Request: fold
Amino acid sequence: MLALSFMPTSYPYTVEFSYQTTNKNTVFLPDFVPFNDLNTSLESSEFIINNKSGIELRSKVYTSPFSYTSVIEAGDAATKTYAYKNVPAIDEEILLPKLVKILPKVSFSLTKFNLEGKQGSINDWAEFGSWYYNSILNPVSLSTPDIKAEVAKLNLRGTTEEKVKKLYQYMQAKTRYVFVGLGIGGWQPMLPDEVHKKGYGDCKGLTNYMKTLLDEAGIPSYYSVINSNESPVSFDPNFPKMGGNHVILMVPTDNGNIWLENTSQVIAFNHLNRSTTDRNVLSIRNKGIELMNTPSYAGHQNKEILHLKVLLNENNSITGEGNFNYTGSQYDYSLGYVNLSHKERNDALKKQIDVLDLENIEMNNFENDKDKAIIKFGIIFKANNYAKNAGNSMIFRAVPIFSNPVYKIDNKRTLPFELRQSFEDEQKVSFVVPRNYKIDEMPDNISLSSEFGSYQLNFTKIGNEIMVDRKLTINKGLYPKEKYNDYIGFRKQTLNMDNSKILITKQ
Reply:
């Protein structure tokens, strides 16, 4: 590394880089993009390919869907030149999509290539997949007597799904994730026997090991390469090239495909997290690659359900107990609790529910249901200063627990915004009013609807209890910049509704 200690005396300033690398691995020809980071503009960038190999070089220009900038193309089959000029920086903005969804790029692929001495062709996905299977996977798809005996010892019974679940949870309990950058440029998995004996591996090794366990049980499965990212990115069906940054396993059954994330010891069976859903994979077969789509979870599957019973106290505090239930992508967010101690869970929960002036909060009965991909837990809490006095009356917020971000109008928005996950929050709250108080005023029932989602808030009086039903639904999508303020307006409305007030008066 070379480092320059430089104190700039004027802004902006330009840094010019020039470097040369030599690499015999021609399967990896980098995409040409203006830049990979926010807040850095580009004056000039040029990419020249001199192809004297006699091998056909394929290229594809992907234009910016938002016309952010474009590539300048020149040259002939032997020498191609691509350039970007005067590309303004992309500033960090709220809900900004990943740069790959904003910027143009040029992709390249040779029809014949080398990877650590392995020669191959990539005229189409089928041809590339056959090479991948025979050169990368098949040489390390080797079982052993120990593995065979271990599977036999599990005494698998029942449906295919039941057998796969038992094998998967056995593998989870036995292994842990450790990155291993070895084997044909880091692309070939560890041998299953190594994972079996050492108890660790990376996504490639653990997936290959899980596949070997299934093979021993007579259950077919497919090693699947994917782009893991919270903003979904898929492979181009019409432009085959080496790619992906993660590996998962697909198991076909009569009742649908089972998808296995093999790097986590705590994730549920047949559940993909938010970084691997809603995109395609390269499913490797002996006769080629099949591009397959991973599941896409709808809002009602990415759900939080909260039931609360809240006792209003005359000193304006509240005491309460309740239960949380999380599924889908909200299950993914809650997995962070799994490996925490009891105290750490309470501390994390207190930070999460910062809308309340919590005196104390206790999480109990925590459960990670790895069969159904549900996280459940109960809470007991006390919060101060919840209500306010107004003479003989008390005024308090109708929704005790909700997220409280700052939503700001932006009339200078330059780029689209992305809501990466659909989700649904459902709350049922029972407020118990002190015996010597009567319920004077409750807000009207409220219903909002927009292309970004919907919101409902309903009130029911039952004796000395007030029942509040709240439901918020958000629709994922990539929305144009012109609609950003419409979205902010919708979220401000939902926030205002969460702050609806209820009035009770001393009798």
